[in-house]
Automatic annotation (TrEMBL):
Keyword Nuclease: no
Main localisation: Golgi
The name this protein goes by in its record: Exostosin GT47 domain-containing protein
Segments for region (Disordered): 103-130, 576-611
Membrane-related topology note: Single-pass type II membrane protein
Bilayer-spanning residue ranges: 26-45
UniProtKB keywords: Glycosyltransferase, Golgi apparatus, Membrane, Signal-anchor, Transferase, Transmembrane, Transmembrane helix
Domain annotation Exostosin GT47: ranges: 150-487
Gene Ontology cellular component annotations, sorted alphabetically: Golgi membrane
Homology family: Belongs to the glycosyltransferase 47 family.
Basic and acidic residues bias spans: 576-588
PANTHER family to which the protein is assigned, alphabetical: EXOSTOSIN HEPARAN SULFATE GLYCOSYLTRANSFERASE -RELATED, XYLOGLUCAN GALACTOSYLTRANSFERASE MUR3
Length: 611
């Protein structure tokens, strides 16, 4: 066959061959470009994307998660807007981040408020080599800023709707059945000024303060706190200014459980919707109630049962509630002092009072102010009164019908100032305001039950109880194993002097300063409590990061034992006070039992006080 000469090829065929060659070249260029970009993307994501979070510049694909962005700049109505008292460092702006991403899932937080179970974000959420981070990281980092006097001390205050606090004060006549609380909510919660009758008080700083007024006093003291922040991501703790004590006081008698629980449920519903709550699911929140814990621990839905269920609400279990009497068997409440009549405005007021208490002549070996409790079978008050009447070494201020000097601040303080020791048996519940009035007078307290002070006020009182007090077990009085006079006379004058000096030195920690003023160097009961809350939250956060718990095998029903541990101790064992805190068995519990009756008796005592 003869080969066809190219010169003889028709023109149309030549054009077709030319077009085919052009398409082949174009296809080759496309493939070459795709291969080049494929190599570039592979190098970008696989090679450079493998750098760790410690590299100066991370070239991998950007991602944002709430659990690795500690600076949550919450836009909310601040507690002290426009007052000039807010003290924040320059805020970190998150304006470019999507709000839905900020509210992404936080690391889970453990349920028990006095333990910490570390729960890091799931490993699948972390990039290779990345260290887990937490939404409270920025708050912890403020401690490292040595130029910031508020580092590690910032408090964020929720700006609650007024129905949770101020509206109650406007309707103050309904706060108690027997007491006109309106006068006691004046002067920032201190009540009306006291006249210096007989020179018992100082010339200034003394007020007729109601023992249930801590809600208002504490909230107003918080307004003077020097490290309030508007940025919750900086906060060492978050304060909830809910007047829990005043709320329940309105409805304890004659109201059904729906009314009693309404404000508590409303508060919790409001809190859990706030972005600040999500930082630690409420573990960093605290509130104050100037009442005993049993008013907030109703166990059932029976209408006849006492109080509300605030402290049993799931969200409230996460928070810390500061009360004037806490439960030895629960982990979410903490004891703080009852308010006394003394609210100094200056450091010098405190120092002058302490010096005066040191110089007083005390003619009575011991004294007691109170009434018997015939309706409480285990009460030792009757025996204490009998012992006091049988000796010339005791001063007795009996509280009963007729003219009742027990409710005269000047009469009470005058007696305490004249005594070396002041007897403080259980009141209607474990605790008494009288214990703090007596220590304010420089009188050494004598306790008969560890729940009256030793396991209650561990933030404010020394753990070594022998330094400032005398303990005589109740059974020794019941069984007449010892007389109070003989026991107290065993203490040498030198030891009495040391103990009294210890009590006088404790005075600043046991009083609430005038909320309208600001002490300079003295730390009062408010300062001690706030710092204790901050320390508690900080320990919890550090434990979460470190993946450890604060205690080994924590049992909430022996919470009182953990409060007595020294720093670094992680385990509890048998204790000499175990018989005092044997929790009632099923059917004999708090509901309808001793604790509820104590709460009811406390209110009956208030009724007697006003009659």
């Amino acid at each position: 066959m003869r080969r066809r000469s190219p010169t003889n090829t028709p023109p149309d065929l030549m054009e077709k061959g030319s077009a085919k060659n052009q398409q082949s070249r174009l296809y080759f260029l496309v493939c070459l470009s795709a291969f080049f970009w494929g190599l570039l993307l592979y190098f970008h994501f696989t090679i450079l994307g493998g750098s760790t979070v410690d590299d100066p510049a991370k070239l991998g694909p950007a991602s944002f998660r709430a659990d690795v962005v500690p600076a949550l700049a919450i836009d909310s109505r601040p507690f002290l807007r426009g007052t000039g008292l807010v003290n924040d460092p320059p805020p970190t702006s998150l304006a470019n981040f999507d709000k839905t991403e900020i509210e992404a899932e936080d690391p889970p937080i453990p349920d028990n408020s006095r333990t910490s179970e570390a729960n890091d974000p799931p490993a699948s959420k972390l990039l290779e080599g990345e260290k887990p981070s937490f939404p409270f990281t920025r708050a912890l980092q403020t401690v490292e800023n040595k130029s910031d006097p508020c580092g590690g001390r910032y408090i964020y205050v929720h700006d609650l709707p007024p129905r949770f606090n101020e509206d109650m004060l406007k309707d103050c006549k309904k706060l108690s059945l027997w007491t006109n609380m309106c006068k006691f909510t004046t002067n920032a919660g201190m009540g009306p000024p006291l006249e210096n009758t007989g020179g018992v008080f100082s010339n200034t700083g003394w007020y007729a303060t109601n023992q249930f007024a801590v809600d208002v006093i504490f909230n107003n003291r918080m307004k003077q706190y020097d490290c309030i922040t508007q940025d919750s991501s900086l906060a060492a703790a978050i304060f909830v200014p809910f007047y829990a004590g005043f709320d329940i006081a309105r409805y304890l008698w004659g109201y059904n459980i729906s009314v009693r629980d309404a404000a508590s449920l409303d508060l919790v519903d409001w809190l859990v919707k706030r972005p600040e709550w999500n930082i630690m699911e409420g573990k960093d929140h605290f509130l104050v109630a100037g009442r005993i814990t049993w008013d907030f621990r109703r166990l059932t839905e029976n209408e006849v049962d006492w109080g509300n269920k605030l402290l049993f609400l799931p969200a409230a279990i996460n928070m810390s509630m500061l009360v004037v009497e806490s439960s030895p068997w629960n982990a979410n409440d903490f004891g703080i002092p009852y308010p006394t009549y003394f609210h100094p405005a200056k450091d010098s007021d405190v120092f002058l009072w302490q010096d005066r208490m040191r110089k007083l002549e005390r003619k009575w070996l011991f004294s007691f102010a109170g009434a018997p409790r015939p309706g409480i079978p285990l009460s030792i008050r009757g025996q204490i009164i009998d012992q006091c009447k049988r000796t010339n070494s005791c001063k007795l201020l009996e509280c009963g019908s007729g003219e009742n000097k027990c409710h005269s601040p000047s009469s009470i303080m005058q007696m305490f100032q004249s005594s070396l020791f002041c007897l403080q048996p259980q009141g209607d519940s474990y605790t008494r305001r009288s214990a703090f009035d007596s220590m304010l007078a420089g009188c050494i307290p004598v306790f008969f039950h560890p729940g009256s002070a030793y396991t209650q006020y561990t933030w404010h009182l020394p753990k070594d109880i022998t330094k400032y007090s005398v303990f005589i077990p109740e059974d020794d009085i019941r069984k007449r194993n010892v007389t109070i006079e003989a026991r107290l006379k065993e203490i040498t004058p030198e030891q009495v002097k040391k103990m009294r000096e210890e009590v006088i030195n404790l005075i600043p920690r046991l009083i609430y300063a005038d909320p309208r003023s600001k002490l300079e160097t003295v730390k009062d009961a408010f300062d001690v409590a706030v710092q204790a809350v901050i320390d508690k939250v900080t320990r919890l956060r550090k434990n979460i990061i470190a993946g450890r718990t604060e205690y080994d095998n924590f049992f909430e029903e022996i919470t009182w034992k953990y409060d007595l541990l020294e720093e670094g101790q992680r385990e509890v064992g048998a204790h000499e006070w175990d018989p005092f805190f044997s929790k009632p068995k099923e059917g004999e519990g708090d509901n309808g039992g001793s604790s509820v009756e104590a709460a009811k008796n406390s209110w009956k005592n208030e009724q007697r006080a006003q009659s």
